[in-house]
């Protein structure tokens, strides 16, 4: 396999805001530290969970730097640097590399639907400007474009694109990746309710916001898979499934913030137009967390 | 669990026709015998693979009787009895029971989209007329209606509806069934490319036409799961995945017939408007079967 | 334009059943007569509205003969003869022609998804056995297959396929037909809520069950279009839109039967699994009919 | 009707870039002037056609100011001010109002799917900060969220939200708007291939990039509708349909730039990742423009 540092549970921190909806870096570091001590195998700031698209350039840079400082090399760091324009993607990718990121994640954000050639050119142009590895991320629901397996294969010909994150929620895509790419390329699951199916299909890691709330169940699932113990993996998976579905259905930033609140941890504020879960949604989440 | 006889590999025979497009019962029995001796744990005549909706009442009855005679109790028999009208469904269900079927499978066929109440009433009315167990089958692609998990739960309150076959191709549905129904109800996977994910999710059996072509790989997968050996299951699954995808994409009756031909076995003729695979499709299938 | 008799409002009668769910031919004739005297320009028995797929061969033949007898040449008759197999489609097409139908309507019913070649062959084989014109009908929701405009073009090369009925509900399909086929082929709208858009796009006729309940509004719309009076057409269309949407959403046979009941006309019984509208649905329909 | 200035053909200018992919304001003004002299009834800078989401805040401000200067009150100006966050939407809305815009257009851009309450709050918060009218824009394909008719009705209760632009491509939505909102609210069509159907349904105007290439055909369609001449409207519509479909399928900024080139007009450069049409696409567009 193309060498890579990332495997197991790749935890996504939220980006907390203060009352005036400014990024709260001090609180961010506290929440990040929780992920680090709870056993996650890597962290990924500025993902969807971290509401990256809602942040200004300066805010993104501050979060990137805060992450590197807090992690201090304890686990690998994967920084989200996606942007609608190629120029801005390069800018953020270079910033992340210079700040000390171990890899960057890029989803081809799309307002005007991009052609396959435009997407390949976008990745290629960015990749040439950095030396750290790139995780290409496919998530039509948020990125607006669905990269076919054939397109992903083309993108993987770029030397420092070494990882694929799949979030379509279709396990068949993972079958394709595994079968076509064999052991040369690692693929990662980004769809929480598919965690068991994706590991069964051979995923190298699970990109997830769930460790903010249930870190032990997440690592237990990975360990069962490592031990080739499907029965245990199934048992552990069904224990956490209700929570995984809830946080996906309600939106990760909102749901994680609410869950932290239930666990007595300050998750800060959201940035508008995102609003907190309703009272009844919080109650439902409380019941799910109790059962876990 | 509600007691049931069905588990493992439930094999679906094709219904072969002669040159005049009449059902060829003698050839049917030969093809069925192949499934029986190759280790399938049960057989299911008059499924989609058996082109049940293309047959007359008399033809369906002949196939049912031929199956019971040929099987001679060696494995359990699950007979498809679905029909657009409730009256005809009852007719065929009673016929199958009298002929000696161990269970019947019913998909609520839909021309005019049925309401949930109409579907429940349909199942209930049929169920009251027979004593053998019923497998409720969800397959929006062929049946025209997608039964929600909530609706399936209602149908399962009918005493002799004891099994669910899921063919939406969405592993999340199986998660739901497993979590909601626990160990009280068995669920079966009808989506071939989901075979690994479904067993990982806890499916009791796999309803499949693949044993017509690759019986050993099918049972090997089931055995690996029984042995809690995920690594082996994954290996065996990826070996057969290309074939599973091919037969689904090309249509089971066409693809199985073509595969039998490649293996030197007479699969008879198809009934119009269904036509044989094209030459290039047959060539593609040949390459896939060689690799297996 | 290839000469054809059909234009304007092509009315679809329901097939009423008696208490024992047997076809009630005597009541059928009465309901058909209402359509004839109310100004419809043609009638189409054994359509979706007439629950053709739920009928036995004998019942279909009885309905066909009853229609010809009752119409007595007053308007052209278009008989639905679709069937899952080619052999049965031929059978019913020949029966309809012999009975005196002016044309037959064929939707390529699909259980196993048909390839384009299979569909062309199906139409071609049937067309060669009859001399009356064929209306090719595209309705993925009930037929299970969506014929692309390119496929429709191929089918129209068959000499006696002279008309297209489009029920995808996508006005763009009609644009395509009009642009590609010009004045050589007539296209008909089968999507009730698209009636105005389809006529604006150049449809020759409207295939609809609505004349069972609101014949004058239907013909008023057609007349406004004939008079090149868009303002009037818009006004008349919005008057009937609520009803058109209701009957489509609830299913035509159920909704027409309920509407007849509200108007004091006996619509007979439905055949299971189809059930009458609920009380609250009937009330809603009552309010809509009052406003009309 | 809530008083509004906008009706007829609302033309969308592209935002041209120079070789270094910087916004070329001088070229922008020339292209805008073409729209003004060709008879468009209003102009709408910073729409999808104007690649608004790809611009920095400073660039958006420059385009807004250039538009007001160039238009000099000759036609009403509708400025796009949508943004992922509420705070930035307010910022741009206030800027547009101060610069002299007659109205602003807002699509609730969505990365994390917004709830109905979040969308209403977003519109309400912005609306309170300005006095010019707001056109609420529904376009799931680019905005990422599909506002149901019921939600649009809620948003229209905000006093200065007075116009709806619909780009789902589903004429039924326009029927709903017309029927529910009657003459109180104007609705505008944003789906080019639906131009005829939308006017037939009662749309007040057509938001379109087509006047960059075929201004006369666009205004001819509107005039035919104003004259209640459906036959003429149909004729004029079919003349331009191929072009309308082409520019939508290829993406408006790319297609308009290519079309300008064919017509001998400098359309500047695109901003990466957007790339020019391929040679064969340009050739296809050339043939379409010749036929017009």
From TrEMBL, chains A, B, C, D:
<dbReference type="GO" id="GO:0008840">
    <property type="term" value="F:4-hydroxy-tetrahydrodipicolinate synthase activity"/>
</dbReference>
<protein>
    <submittedName>
        <fullName>Dihydrodipicolinate synthase family protein</fullName>
        <ecNumber>4.1.3.3</ecNumber>
        <ecNumber>4.2.1.41</ecNumber>
        <ecNumber>4.3.3.7</ecNumber>
    </submittedName>
</protein>
<dbReference type="Pfam" id="PF00701">
    <property type="entry name" value="DHDPS"/>
</dbReference>
<dbReference type="InterPro" id="IPR002220">
    <property type="entry name" value="DapA-like"/>
</dbReference>
<comment type="similarity">
    <text>Belongs to the DapA family.</text>
</comment>
<dbReference type="GO" id="GO:0047448">
    <property type="term" value="F:5-dehydro-4-deoxyglucarate dehydratase activity"/>
</dbReference>
<dbReference type="GO" id="GO:0008747">
    <property type="term" value="F:N-acetylneuraminate lyase activity"/>
</dbReference>
<keyword id="KW-0456">Lyase</keyword>
<dbReference type="InterPro" id="IPR013785">
    <property type="entry name" value="Aldolase_TIM"/>
</dbReference>
């Amino acid at each position: 396999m193309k060498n890579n540092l990332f495997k197991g549970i790749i935890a996504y921190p939220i980006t907390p805001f203060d009352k005036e909806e400014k990024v709260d870096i001090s609180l961010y570091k506290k929440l990040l530290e929780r992920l680090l001590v709870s056993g996650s195998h890597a962290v990924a700031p500025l993902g969807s969970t971290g509401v990256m698209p809602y942040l200004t350039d300066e805010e993104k840079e501050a979060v990137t730097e805060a992450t590197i400082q807090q992690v201090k090399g304890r686990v690998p760091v994967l920084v989200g640097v996606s942007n609608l324009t190629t120029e801005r993607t390069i800018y953020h990718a270079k910033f992340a590399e210079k700040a000390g990121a171990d890899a960057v994640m890029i989803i081809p954000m799309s307002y005007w639907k991009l052609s396959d050639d435009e997407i390949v050119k976008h990745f290629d142009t960015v990749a040439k400007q950095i030396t750290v590895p790139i995780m290409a991320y496919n998530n039509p629901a948020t990125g607006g474009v669905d990269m076919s397996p054939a397109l992903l294969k083309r993108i993987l010909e770029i030397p420092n694109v070494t990882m694929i994150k799949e979030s379509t929620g279709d396990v068949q895509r993972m079958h394709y990746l595994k079968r076509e790419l064999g052991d040369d390329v690692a693929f990662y699951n980004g769809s929480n309710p598919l965690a068991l199916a994706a590991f069964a299909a051979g995923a190298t890691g699970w990109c997830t916001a769930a460790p903010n709330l249930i870190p032990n169940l997440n690592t237990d699932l990975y360990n069962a898979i490592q031990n080739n113990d499907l029965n245990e993996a199934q048992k552990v998976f069904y224990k956490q499934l209700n929570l995984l579905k809830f946080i996906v259905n309600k939106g990760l930033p909102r749901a994680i913030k609410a869950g932290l609140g239930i666990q007595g941890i300050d998750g800060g504020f959201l940035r508008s137009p995102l609003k907190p879960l309703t009272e009844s949604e919080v109650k439902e989440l409380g019941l799910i967390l109790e059962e876990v």
